[in-house]
Structures are given as C-alpha cells and as structure tokens.
Design brief:
The protein is an all-alpha fold and about 290 residues long. The protein is about 75% helix and about 0% strand.
Length: about 290
C-alpha cells in the first residue's frame, strides 16, 4: 500500500469518486428510486420519497466505502488500482467516511416509519457482515438472497403501501439476488481463487456459476409466469408475459455467449446484463400488478 504524501485536490477527488463505487451505487439508487415511485404512485409525497431515496443512497455509499476499507490488505496484493492501495485515500479516512454516511442514513430515516428503518438497518447489517468476511465464503449468495428482497420491501413499507404481492415478490427477489451475487463475483474469480477466497463462484467454478446464475433468472421468470397466469396475484398479462419472454430469451442467449469466455471485461458486461435483466423483470412485474 502506498503511503500518501502531499496529495493534490484532484487526486483526493479521484480517490473519493472511486471509493464510493459509483456504478454499483448508481444502480442501487436507480432501483430504489423506481421501487419507491412505483409504490407511491399516483400520490407522490416528495419529501417522504426524497428521504427514502436519500437514506438508501447514504447507506449504499457507506457500504461501498466500508467494503474497500475491509479489503485494503487483499487489494494491495491483487487490486492495486483501488484508491486505498494507490494512496489516494487513507484507511482512516475511508473508515470515518463510512461511519459518517451511516450516521447520515440514520438521520434521514428518523422522520420515516420505524418499520422502514428496521428494514434498512437489517440490510445494512447483512452488507456489513458480507464486507467483514461472508463475501469470502459460499454464504455470500445467501446474504444477497436475503438482502435483495429488502430493497422493494423498504420502498413499499416506506410509503406505507402494504400489499400481499410482496409475499410472492420475495422468493423472486431472492433468486435474483443469488444470480446477481454470482455475476458480480465472476470478473474477480481468478483473483479470488488465487487469494484462497471461497466465494460461491469460486466453489462452483466459472461454467457452473454461469449456469446457476442463468437458472436462477429462469426460475424467477417461471415463478412470475405461474403466479400471473393462474392469477394468484391479479396481473396485466399483456404487459408481463412479453417481458418474461424477452428476459428468458436474453438470459439464455447471454449464457451461451459468455459461458466459455474468461476476459474480465466481458464478465463485467455479463454482470451488468444480469443486473439490467433483474431490474426489468422486477419493475415490469410490479407495473403489471399495480397498473
């Protein structure tokens, strides 16, 4: 790890920008924004909506910074272009930054319902557990399976829109959480294996990870299709069924295109494709139910 000397302002700004993991955090912010707006529609109470989005954003930034703080030693060996190994940000600054973001999250949660606050704190606890060691074990998939359903639940509870639909949405989101976890681990699979980490993707191997990831998305599609067709949840099938066909076709095509490729950049694109497919699937189903 490089010891920071006198850092220039632009170096500190660059370090902060990289430290917050801007793309993954932006994906989470977009997701929670969509869920909150869909849950609140058509009565949009903007102060409440902005507090919900702001609290979740602060939490995601805190988690991202805390992740780099926890990984600072291993990043020095295998990921030297991260801000802490580069000396752009000190470990102490990262730790304090994470704590400050958590404090901001708690402050923004105060005016909201207690249940929304508890859901957010549960998500934070799972994420911190992931950062502190669970990410290096097969339990990483379990953490994602538990955490991902909490995002739409937080949105709906936050605007006090209670619906039985969430009971069916939870297993779908859990399957998508496992898929996202595996896809997220694929770009760093070789580095994790070399560091003797036993993530779920390392245990399964690259080809099996692609297969399990694909199966999780397809099982989500099948579950949504079954629930929609038999009307266990009243659904506008003219919206949902074409979407399911597109997601199913795209997921299978992505599997055959990416499964034999090991380039890190391509694995990163696969991750983003799974995230986009998961968001489209979740948001499309919600629109079909709430319309």
């Amino acid at each position: 790890m490089e010891m920071p000397g006198k850092r220039r302002p632009h170096e500190i700004f660059t370090g902060l920008f990289l430290l917050v993991h801007p793309i993954p955090v932006a994906i989470h912010v977009v997701a929670v924004t969509f869920f909150v707006l869909l849950a609140a529609w058509p009565v949009l109470a903007w102060p409440e909506i902005l507090l919900l989005i702001g609290a979740h954003t602060a939490m995601q930034v805190a988690i991202a910074i805390h992740n780099d703080y926890c990984d600072r030693a291993t990043d020095t060996l295998g990921k030297k272009k991260k801000p802490i190994p580069l000396g752009l940000i000190t470990p102490r600054e990262a730790l304090y930054g994470s704590i400050c973001c958590m404090a901001l999250m708690l402050l923004l949660l105060l005016p909201l319902s207690r249940l929304a606050g508890l859901i957010s704190l549960l998500y934070l606890a799972l994420a911190l557990g992931y950062n502190l060691g669970l990410k290096a074990t097969p339990l990483s998939g379990v953490v994602f399976a538990l955490a991902i359903p909490l995002i739409p639940l937080y949105a709906f509870v936050g605007v006090e829109h209670f619906t039985s639909f969430l009971g069916w949405f939870t297993p779908v989101a859990a399957l998508l959480g496992i898929a996202i976890n595996l896809a997220n681990s694929l770009p760093d699979l070789e580095e994790d294996r070399a560091s003797n980490l036993h993530t779920l993707a390392v245990v399964l191997g690259r080809k099996a990870s692609y297969l399990v990831c694909t199966l999780c998305v397809l099982l989500s599609v099948l579950l949504i299709g079954f629930v929609s067709l038999v009307q266990l949840v009243p659904t506008q099938n003219q919206i949902v069924l074409p979407l399911l066909f597109v997601i199913c076709t795209g997921t299978v095509a992505a599997y055959f295109y990416f499964r034999d490729r090991q380039e890190k950049a391509l694995s990163q694109r696969y991750f983003y494709s799974i995230v986009c497919a998961s968001l489209l699937l979740a948001i499309g189903w919600i629109i079909g139910v709430l319309r």
